[in-house]
Design brief:
Layout lengths: L3 E4 L9 H16 L3 E6 L9 H14 L5 E4 L4 H13 L3 E4 L2 E4 L6 E5 L3 E5 L7 E4 L7 H11 L4 E5 L6 H11 L5 E5 L2 E2 L15 H6 L4 H10 L13 H7 L10 E2 L2 H14 L2 H15 L8 H11 L6 H12 L7 H7 L2 H4 L2 H9 L6 H14 L4 H13 L7 H8 L1 H11 L2
Helix pairs in contact: 1-8, 4-5, 7-9, 10-11, 15-16, 15-19, 16-18, 17-18
The chain binds one RNA strand of 77 nucleotides through β7, β8, α4, β12 and α9.
RNA sequence: GACCCCAUCGUCUAGCCUGGUCAGGACACAAGCUUUUCAAGCUUGCAGCGCGGGUUCAAAUCCCGCUGGGGUCGCCA
């Protein structure tokens, strides 16, 4: 049997991280079985479906690396749904209510075997007749879904747990149509940090938000797959390729998982650390351009030096931009408490001489600046720590950051000297 | 409310199917080492089987009940 899965978002909103994880499991499962992955846009609700959302969904899927083998839009297939509805009408399995078509609920065993949960059974008495075609001629979700899954020969329907109670209704439609139902697997939902329902208030929920905030797609994908699934060998860093090798749908958890931004950030930091600095330059450049900090023809080597300095000090782009702002902006504020604590008259009185000493550093490298700096500090009988911290504040506006001399090298001679002198009185 | 699903550290999880390993790992948190600060790195620590009944020589693991959480009850998807 050929394995075929599908992800079927409706373009009534951005691609949600919950949806992304469902898509991810479908993709991984198809790939792990040598099967095919279908992307089907469920845009039967003409009112709420928007072109911009469709574009955003496609873009997010591509960004995540979840390429599809087949693509469909339900709005192209309305005629097909009407034909099947007519068939049910002709066979007496459905009845008309004005222009609408409604399925007579057959008496049947509404039982199915869920690949993740095992046997799930519903009482057919509790399920009402189902609308198949709405009064406006468009198909309902369940009807279009069943017709498509059957015609597209979807072998495994992997979807969110919120669809579990749709399954018995759809089973009835399969039976009426005379189609064999696919295998079902309902993956648990993702909860917010507090364990409640994911909502706008829960923070970033759209995949595009994570892209904008400077997360690496590999990190997001890695995080999402770990929410409800584990390779089982204590590995946390798992590539898509490794996941495909180890994936088993039966090993997917049954219980809902709370989203953890701190773990996602940790994973992102891990991926950031192992990404070659050269590649990171390209990753970071668009964000710097957007800030207006660099132009189109920026000094690639300089950005490379900066990236190398901060690669281990950031979990996302926001942190990077915050910590490197002093390199691109002239007027940064030194917080009042730091000014008082580290830039007192006493502490800055050697600044003039330090500036003079640094003037001789040529080239203005980490090694040369450090040598000149140390020499001057020793001559004055001071300790390095007494001078290093005040100077860092003068240069960066912060008391934390990379090594002082690496910072100087990347800041450049002119700005370094200027800022030291400026702070000395 | 009815129906359905679920339940291991604060969080994500391994272990459950095929009862017997100090219940393992990761994030977070705390401490130490390193260091011009921070980060990274290394080491250590803290912390869990929801409750109650069974079955059994033995239960996180099997069964039942309870409690708790979640989902669905649209001519939305």
């Amino acid at each position: 049997m050929t394995i075929k899965t599908r992800f079927a978002p409706s373009p009534t909103g951005f691609l949600h991280i919950g949806g992304a994880r469902t898509a991810l499991f479908n993709w991984i499962y198809a790939r792990s079985q040598g099967g095919r992955f279908v992307l089907r846009i469920e845009d039967t609700d003409m009112e709420r479906s928007k072109e911009e959302y469709l574009e955003e969904i496609l873009k997010s899927m591509t960004w995540l690396g979840l390429e599809w083998d087949e693509f469909y839009k339900q709005s192209d297939r309305f005629e097909l749904y009407r034909q099947y509805a007519q068939k049910l009408l002709d066979e007496g399995k459905a009845y008309a209510d004005g222009p609408a078509v409604i399925l007579k609920m057959p008496q049947m065993q509404l039982k199915f075997f869920d690949l993740i949960r095992g046997e799930v059974e519903f009482d057919s008495e509790t399920i009402k007749d189902q609308v198949l075609i709405k009064s406006d001629g468009s198909p309902t979700y369940s009807f279009a879904c069943v017709v498509d899954d059957a015609l597209m020969e979807i072998s495994h329907v992997i979807r969110g747990e919120d669809h579990i109670s749709n399954t018995p209704k759809q089973l009835a439609i399969y039976q009426a149509l005379g189609f064999k139902p696919p295998k079902f697997a309902h993956v648990p939902l993702i909860m917010d940090e507090e364990g409640g329902r994911m909502s706008k208030r829960s923070g970033a929920t759209a995949v595009s938000d994570y892209r904008k905030n400077g997360f690496l797609p590999e990190a997001l994908v890695n995080y999402l797959m770990l929410l409800g699934w584990s390779p089982g060998d204590n590995q946390e860093i798992v590539s898509l390729q490794a996941a495909v090798k180890k994936f088993s749908i039966k090993k997917v958890n049954k219980s809902a998982a709370a989203f953890s931004m701190s773990k996602l950030k940790w994973l992102n930091a891990e991926y950031l650390k192992k990404t070659p600095a050269e590649d990171l330059v390209d990753f970071v450049a668009p964000f710097l351009k957007e800030k207006g900090w660099i132009s189109e023809d920026y000094d690639r080597n300089r950005i490379l030096n900066i990236v190398e300095l901060y690669q281990n000090r950031m979990a996302d782009i926001e942190e990077f931009l915050q910590r490197t702002a002093y390199l691109f902006q002239e007027d940064f504020e030194v917080p009042q408490d730091l000014r008082e604590r580290l830039l007192s008259q006493q502490q800055t009185r050697c600044f003039e001489d330090l500036a003079k000493a640094l003037e001789t550093a040529e080239p203005f490298s980490k090694e040369k600046t450090e040598a000149a700096f140390r020499c001057c500090v020793e001559e004055k009988g001071l300790k390095m720590s007494e001078v290093v911290h005040p100077v860092r504040v003068a240069l960066t506006g912060s008391d934390v950051g990379p090594g002082l001399f690496e910072t100087m090298a990347v800041l450049g001679k002119q700005k370094t000297l200027q800022r030291i002198q400026l702070a000395s009185f």
